[in-house]
Amino acid sequence: WVSPSLGTSGGPWAAWMPPAVAGLSGTCVAIPCRFGYPEELRPATVHGLWYFGSPYPKNYPPVVARSRTGAVHESFTGRARLVGDPGVRDCSLLLGPLSPELAGKYYFRGDLGGYNQYSFSEHTTLEVLEEPVLEVPPELVAGEEVELRCRVPDNCPQLRPRVGWEGIEELPEVSERELREDAAGAGTVLALLRFRPRREDGGRRLSCRVAFANSTLAFEATVALDVQLELGCEAEGRPPPLLSWFRGVTVLREEPVSTNLRLVLSRVEPDHAGTYSCVAENRHGRHNRSLHLHVAYAPRSPILNGSLWVVAGDPVTVTCGAASHPAPIVTVTRGRRVVAAAVYEPQVTMTLAAARPEDAGEYLCRAENQHGESSLAFNLTVEFPPILLPDSRCTPGGDGARCVCSASAIPEPAVTFDLPSRNVTVTEGHRDYTVTTPGRGTGRVVTVTGILTLRGTLDPRLAVLCSAHNPHGSIRQQLRFHHPGGLVWAKVGPVGAVVAFAIVIALVCYLSQSRRK
Predict the structure, then answer these.
(1) Assigned superfamily of 389-482
(2) pLDDT in tens, 427-447
(3) CATH class, range 133-225
(4) Virtual CA dihedral for 151, 152, 154, 160, nearest 10 degrees?
(5) CATH code at 228-293
(6) 45-101: per-residue pLDDT in tens?
(7) What's the burial of 248, exposed, middle or buried (CB within 10 Å: 0-12/13-18/19+)?
(8) Domain 303-384 -> CATH class
């Protein structure tokens, strides 16, 4: 940018900077700035600083940057630098990395020493963008050339933007060019895209993508094309005919005494598909012509049919379909495994001859065609009777034992302990029984763990049975005693321990006598 000549004798206080400047979040902006002051002042040194939001010190605005050492507001620490030399009337400012809170007005204040300080009313308004600006005409008519514009700020010396278009591979008559605009010191790269949209391009997504050399920063703005469709009808007659457009028996538009009638369909939707007829008539006769309109579009959100809550052993049939044109490829997957697929069909059916507990979990139905895709996640729940888990066991310890009974099922199982030798059934509420809070695992599986504490000397004949039941069945199993190292004496009891100790002593004595011989 070019500033007016400064420093003429007796000139007023004045500053020149771009009135507005923009930058993408994470990049930077350089704000060019020049200022002038009356020549008769002839200061020995000149300093300056930038304020944010207000030019007046009495309002205590945040200090953005200074030409000499001094405090600045924490928001600008390490993010703002007065790169110009006020001594030569250069007040240029560099800001970055940018973030939304830095958007606003910036003012420069010159300091020539003593009372010769001046806050300039001229200022720059900074706009921080999260993506490039896409300019799309309000109407796109099939067959008529259209131009899309992508505006990208170019005010960061260290990061020059590279602009490109995505999604244009199948567009007809495409041409691209790039311009640079400079408005009072603020730069913009303008990427232009020209093409002729077709009816089938309605809903197509086009993106303007911005990248920078030697940087991982990238930005993208996307638009879905809204293509208008014009249907034309011409007829001649004497007297001139009445022209009408029909869809079925519904009159969409008519024009008396006309030779040309156009029907404009804005925002073409799948519901617009069908047969359209143009009718021309006067008192001497009537003629008509018809055409069938096909509307291509990406798959709509999938719809499910079938029960997603079954009992183990029951068959499963779940149908997933999505409306689209042309017909989509529909798949049902679980993780990376394809469970069911249909090619160019409106729906796919997932079948299981007999549901198993391990079949429960999340599935994904996905429909796609050349115009886009859509998907829907769903959960299959399989109810089943209780299964006892491997950690169900009794562990002796100290004076007694701790028995654990863990069971998984859907719905939640009830867990009890039976002690046949004592003719006792222990359930929730017994002082020696505790139950953990049920936990839900994959596919809504509920795991319940009951803990029974046995106190006192254990009878070697003691049997502990673990039972679990829910509406679908029950299971019962005798728990085995698990003897970790050092706890074997708890199982054999005090008397057994004394006997075993005596045997060990006798064996040691025997070995000693044998060596003496």
Answers:
(1) Immunoglobulins (2.60.40.10)
(2) 988 888 999 866 666 668 899
(3) mainly beta
(4) -130
(5) 2.60.40.10
(6) 999 999 999 999 999 999 999 998 889 999 999 999 999 999 999 999 999 899 999
(7) exposed
(8) mainly beta
